């Protein structure tokens, strides 16, 4: 019988791809026979190829398999306008494709890691949500992934628990992921007082790692469609960004905020030489200049001296920020060992293997 790790969450951006990478590496290390499956892949846009970038990354790094891509992720649905793309006939067609692919890749394996939809709400209108897929595959237990570092995590957990039970599935265990360090003790209190009484195991509490969950400058550049204008500092595209600051004040006021943060992406207009120079004297990972306005040469020279990349955004500041809100930082190939170490340390594998 195949042991199933179906990762699901109420909130989006819960880190299910990160967890999938860690689960795969752990199963590989333990020499288990396993498979990875993502029923519905989500391409970058409706006008790109149908490949899900997270699936592609996993296939190119930790999960080498002879199965074709369409077995690993049989259905592709873009994030936008999908309600209009999936009618009743398509729903049945997609569920059949998912079931056939699942049956093929679960042959001769003992474990399967299933990366669920962005949230359990996703695709529910068209009948392709996680619970509907689980029912189609004969799966009656899902792992619930929680990322809130507030007491709201308990409300969301019980909402998900009641919803699952209404749909005749249960929670295999709860996995707290990307939790702020200062909230971990509170999670343990809540586990003791509110979760244990329902005999639902807490599989692990994974602290939010700035090294793993912070975007790199290169990811920011791609997300906003920006242009690197100082190639001399291209090595800085690998810099991590812990926070974003918007420069819309005078330089003295900006310095007050710049001195409180580390590895910031400082966003301002290309014509704000005073703010750009002030930022370059602090701990910034990149300058993002909006409005496609070229900066003064003195700014470029100062940035090159410190190896700080300057990204020119084609959009205004407001649009640039909105685009950055949709940024989903990905795990990089050189971070695989860190992922495995964190997953091994923080998950109680005695409950799973």
Description:
With 353 residues, this protein is an alpha/beta fold. The protein folds into two domains: 3-213 and 329-351, P-loop containing nucleotide triphosphate hydrolases (Rossmann fold, 3-Layer(aba) Sandwich); 217-325, Udp-n-acetylmuramoylalanyl-d-glutamate--2,6- Diaminopimelate Ligase, Chain: A, domain 1, CATH 3.40.1390. It is 40% helix and 18% strand. It contains 15 helices and 13 strands. The strands form three sheets. A six-stranded parallel beta sheet has the order 2-5-1-6-7-8, sandwiched between helices. A five-stranded mixed beta sheet has the order 9-13-12-11-10, covered by helices on one side. Helix 7 links the parallel strand 6 and strand 7 (170-179). Helix 1 (16-29) packs across helix 15 (336-346) and helix 12 packs parallel to helix 13. The radius of gyration is 22 Å and the shape is globular. The two termini are 13 Å apart. The relative contact order is 0.13. The model has no long low-confidence stretch (mean pLDDT 93).
- Which sequence of SSEs, written as H and E, runs from N to C? EHEEHHEHHEHEHEHEHHEEHEHEHEHH
Count of DSSP strands: 13
Class of the largest domain, according to the CATH hierarchy? Alpha Beta
Identify the CATH architecture of the largest domain.
3-Layer(aba) Sandwich
Output the structural class.
Answer: alpha/beta
Shape: globular
**Rg of Cα set:** 22 Å
Annotation field: number of helices:
15
Unreliable stretches (pLDDT < 50, length at least 5) are none
Overall average residue pLDDT: 93
Strand arrangement within the widest β-sheet reads 2-5-1-6-7-8
Largest sheet: 6 strands, parallel
CATH topology of the largest domain: Rossmann fold
State the end-to-end CA separation.
13 Å
Q: Strand percentage, roughly? A: 15-25%
The percent range for helix content is 25-40%
Q: CATH homologous superfamily name of the largest domain? A: P-loop containing nucleotide triphosphate hydrolases
